[in-house]
Amino acid sequence: MLEIKNASKIYGDGAAKVTALDNVSLEVEKGGFVSIMGPSGSGKSTLLNIIGGLERLTSGEIILNGERIDNLTEDAFVAIRRGKIAYVFQQYHLLQSLTALENVLLPLVFYSANGKTEKAMELLKRVGLEKRVNHKPNELSGGEQQRVAIARALVTAPSLILADEPTGNMDKKTGEEIIRLFEELNRDGHTIIVVTHNPEVARITREVVSLQDGRIVSRTKNVGKG
Ligand SMILES: Nc1ncnc2c1ncn2[C@@H]1O[C@H](COP(=O)(O)OP(=O)(O)O)[C@@H](O)[C@H]1O
Ligand SMILES: [Mg+2]
To answer: Quick one: which of 21, 115, 140, 155 has the fewest CB in 10 Å?
Structure first.
C-alpha cells in the first residue's frame, strides 16, 4: 500500500547542509505494522513527515495505494491525506479549549456526513474514554489525552496511521496501555508505522526498521507477528 523509493531529504546547504534521509527505500503492505528505531537525529521523524506530507522530499518517490503522492500540489496532497493518513504525536496536539469529543470531531469539520457525533462517541468508547467525552485535555491524564488523539486519528477511517514516539511522554504502565491499543488497531486491519525508542513497542510490531545517519541499517521481521 505504501512504497518509498530512493527517498532523500537534505536540509540547508553549504556548511549547514544536513542529509536527514539518504536514499531510503521501504515498502509497507496493507495491514502492516512497522516500527522505526534509531538514535536521536537519525531521520526517524523526517521519514514519517515525508510520508505524512508534512515535509517535501529532496529526491525520490512516495507511492500510496498505487498513486504517486510526493509530487502533488499542496491542495491535492491535503485532499489525499485527509481521510487516508492520520498522525499521532508524542505531544498529543489536542486543542485545549475543546472537549475530548470536540477534538475527535475536528477532522470531520470538512465533511457533511450524518452521524459524526455517533462515530466520534463510538471511537472514544473504543479507546476506553466513554466516561471522559466532555472533559478538556487539562482534565485528562497523559495516557487519556493520547487516547483522545488516537480516536481523533481514527475518525476519518484512515488507511495509514503514523505515530511519532506516541509513548514518549508516558510512564511505563500508561505506555503499555497505549501499545496494547495500537496492537488491537493493527489486529483490526489498520496499517501502522510507529517511530519509537521503546523496545516494548518495537517488540509488538511485525517489522523493525533501524535508521542511522538517514539510512536504513537493518530490517528485522518479528517472529510470530506475521
Ligand atoms: N527543519 C529542519 N532543518 C534543518 N535540519 C533539520 C530539520 N529537521 C530535522 N533536521 C535534521 O535532520 C536530522 C534528522 O532529524 P529527525 O528526523 O528529526 O531525527 P530523529 O527523529 O531520528 O531524532 C537531524 O540531524 C536534524 O537536526
Ligand atoms: Mg524524532
So the answer is: 115
Q: Check pLDDT > 60 for residue 226.
A: no
Cβ(62)–Cβ(91) under 8 Å? Answer: no
Ligand 1 atom closest to the CA of 195, numbered from 1: 21
How do residues 155-167 score in pLDDT, each as one tens digit? 988 889 999 999 9
Mean pLDDT of 128-139: 96
Using a 6 Å cutoff on CB, does residue 38 contact ligand 1? Answer: yes
Beta strands 59-64 and 67-68, pairing class? antiparallel
The pLDDT value given to residue 71: 87
**Is 2-221 assigned to CATH 3.30.450.40?**
no
Query: Domain coordinates of the chain in residue numbers?
Result: 2-221
Distance between Cα 11 and ligand 1 center (Å): 8
The closest ligand to the CA of 50 turns out to be: 1
Closest CA to 84 of 182, 1, 9: 1
